[in-house]
Amino acid sequence: MKNTYNLRSIAAKAINQVLEQGQSLSTVIPELQQKISDKDKALLQELCFGVMRVLPQLEWFIAQLMAKPLKGKQRIFHYLIMVGMYQLTYTRIPAHASIAETVNGAISLKRPQLKGLINGVLRQFQRQQQKLVEKSNDATHHFHPKWLLTRIQKAYPHNWQHIVNANNQKPPMWLRVNQIHHSANEYLTLLQKANIAAELDEGHPNAIRLLNPCPVNMLPGFDKGWVTIQDRSAQGCAELLIPSDEEKILDLCAAPGGKTTHILEMAPNAKVLAVDIDEQRIKRVEENLQRLNLNAVIKTGDGRFPHKWADGEQFDRILLDAPCSATGVIRRHPDIKWLRRNEDIDQLVILQSEILDAIWPYLKKGGTLVYATCSILPDENNEQIKAFLKRHTDAKLSGTGTHEIPGIQIIPEIEGGDGFFYARLTKQ
Ligand SMILES: C[S@@+](CC[C@H](N)C(=O)[O-])C[C@H]1O[C@@H](n2cnc3c(N)ncnc32)[C@H](O)[C@@H]1O
């Protein structure tokens, strides 16, 4: 049966919502996916994430081919043209189909009179494609916004190219094997039986990397909670926390619960309180706990004001997975590059330090706090913890570095983990 929708126009709508209205792809795409077939869901994802990944290059192509960019109500057609160029440059969809489907997007978007313009730009692009692709490399800041590229270059003068290159790739798919059910080795055998190529990870005991991403419903026992999708670097947080049964553990900034569930897989009888400010996202903690058959107390609350939700309790261990720039996970969320602003970073640094200061009194003497971010920017990471150690003389580093470099900074690696930062502190 023929589809009644035009997928390219849906992709242009999603991109328009991100770039013109500041929404994230992870909110926009699930809504739009409800209207389309399973087969097209993956293509929609590929088109939207792909355009975000190489946006400056597509902007540059358009600037070479069109005297005036489409603005205002016609802006969505600018993005439709990008969707066309992306297909021609980065997918194996035959060129004639890419162009025809993209041009037809103008009908779905109720401006059939623009078909000629879109067709003309895409045909012209096709003729000059090779030359334009070659020339675009110098003009596009490695597909990063200038402010962010400058920050990365300053923080990593020797390996910034390695980082931006990793940011521009599609991310690998990592699994966390639920140790309550299987060891990583046992689960690898189950994957092999299901013809899913994968390999173990040396650094993280429960981590497995799939050689090719696959839908979760193909993973053995996913519904039974045998396995969770989680990057290897994110798995380092609970590993560093070393939770034990019967301990009181606070997982602060917990939603959607990736680390709450990891803590409980490691210590199923720990008394875990999971807190997050976002009422919608916190519902997903509940769903994840249910799938894995684990228990925690869940509360909505602001980490800056624990007196409102902690009931005067103190904790043996606290994991603070702080709100951050997410600059370590750009390959998973390439829209971050265009949603974040340089000014946001200073504000995030203040928010992180406020949460750290507010939560510290709620850690028992002798207790352990792990501070983590999925950022690669020093201000949110090593500099943040250095300043914290100066303000709190009863805080001591515990195995994650020195006073000069108090944490472990992971940078994104093409076949490895996301960019991440962890510091472990104990209270004297
Ligand atoms: C990096 S995400 C957490 C990911 C989560 N720990 C996991 O593993 O699934 C950061 C979280 O911080 C939450 N957040 C932001 N500001 C907060 C605040 N002031 N207090 C508590 N949570 C906050 C966000 O809603 C977001 O869910």
From TrEMBL:
The keyword Methyltransferase applies. It holds the Pfam family RsmF-B_ferredox. Its EC number is 2.1.1.176. It comes from the Bacteria. The active site is at C374. Signal peptide: none annotated. SUPFAM superfamilies: NusB-like, S-adenosyl-L-methionine-dependent methyltransferases. InterPro entries: MeTrfase_RsmB-F_NOP2_cat, MeTrfase_RsmB-F_NOP2_dom, NusB-like_sf, NusB_RsmB_TIM44, RCMT, rRNA_ssu_MeTfrase_B, rRNA_ssu_MeTfrase_B_ent, RsmB-like_ferredoxin. CDD domains: AdoMet_MTases, Methyltransferase_Sun. It catalyses: cytidine(967) in 16S rRNA + S-adenosyl-L-methionine = 5-methylcytidine(967) in 16S rRNA + S-adenosyl-L-homocysteine + H(+). GO terms for molecular function: RNA binding; rRNA (cytosine-C5-)-methyltransferase activity. Residues 163-428 form the SAM-dependent MTase RsmB/NOP-type domain. Transmembrane segments: none annotated. Keywords: Cytoplasm, Methyltransferase, RNA-binding, rRNA processing, S-adenosyl-L-methionine, Transferase. One of its GO terms (cellular component) is cytosol. S-adenosyl-L-methionine binds at C253, A254, A255, P256, G257, G258, K259, D276, D302, D321. The keyword RNA-binding applies. GO terms for biological process: regulation of DNA-templated transcription; rRNA base methylation. It is found in: Cytoplasm. Specifically methylates the cytosine at position 967 (m5C967) of 16S rRNA. PANTHER family: NOL1_NOP2_SUN FAMILY PROTEIN _ ANTITERMINATION NUSB DOMAIN-CONTAINING PROTEIN, NOP2 YEAST -RELATED NOL1/NOP2/FMU SUN DOMAIN-CONTAINING. Belongs to the class I-like SAM-binding methyltransferase superfamily. RsmB/NOP family. This is Ribosomal RNA small subunit methyltransferase B. It comes from Xenorhabdus innexi. The lineage of its organism: Bacteria, Pseudomonadati, Pseudomonadota, Gammaproteobacteria, Enterobacterales.
